[in-house]
Amino acid sequence: MRKLKEAFSTTYKETPQDLRLDTRPLVKKVTRGNVNLQLGRFASEHEIDERRESVCKYKFID
Amino acid sequence: MTPEQLTAIKSIVTLFEEAEIKLKEVEQFTQDLSIPSINELRYAGYHLAKAMCYEETDDNNQLNCEIDKAKGHCKRAVYDAHEMGIIYVLEKIKLFDEKYTDYMSVVVEVIPNYSEKVLLKSHEASSFIANIKGSHRDNRDNFYTACEPHYISLKNIVTQLTVNKSTIDTIINNNIVREKAETKKFILSISVVLLGTIISVLGIIVTLKSG
Questions:
Q1: 8 A C-beta contact, residue B89 and residue B32
Q2: How close is the nearest chain A Cα to the Cα of B24, in Å?
Q3: A58/B33 touch (CB, cutoff 8 Å), yes or no
Q4: pTM of the model
Q5: How far does Cα B94 stand from its chain's mean position?
Q6: pLDDT per residue over B89-147, tens digit each?
Q7: Inter-chain contacts counted by CB atoms under 8 A, chains A and B
């Protein structure tokens, strides 16, 4: 059934790129200081804890 | 301040520089700033400043204590920076693994050592950071050198995955196009057979009725 669905679906698509990366040169041009901070790209201890927990739970090997 | 203490303070400066370099390197790679790592460097600076205020007549133990604390914070800053890098890279590998879970044969075709190199190394690194978080969070400065090899090896793995991604996507797309064509061909042949059968049955019915 899956093959049947795929046969009439659109072709395999890649995940869209992170659009925020495109804004970096603009942010760098119009602001001063750390670009990552300007873009709000920083991680607190709590956020890092959550991200660590998420990746550590993932079963890379069975 | 004794010559030993002066040497110790110089080593803190070296550690501080190392931490600063690692922090910037990981920040540029992950495009994300690790606040815990910056905090550790802030504490290191505070203890270093306190250490510089002690005079020769003051208690040597307190000065040594400040030096040790500053060192510990610098090492924890290095650990935190690398840990942030490891988490980022593991997230990338996890996304890759989830995305291509149905196409593992293609992945293995392009990256033959995928299980041993990518998944095993990822498992080792995730176990390492999970263990430190679970049992050694407060003395993670003791593991600041052990963290870097995991980060470097996973960073290389992600580069390898990124390089091979387009090849994998091309093979998957080609496979899908081929499978679609085969499925369409199969459906078409079944339809022709069915149509032929229906026409034959109708023909027989018409012949029988007219006869």
A1: no
A2: 11
A3: no
A4: 0.81
A5: 8
A6: 999 999 999 999 999 999 999 999 898 889 999 999 999 999 998 888 788 888 889 99
A7: 87
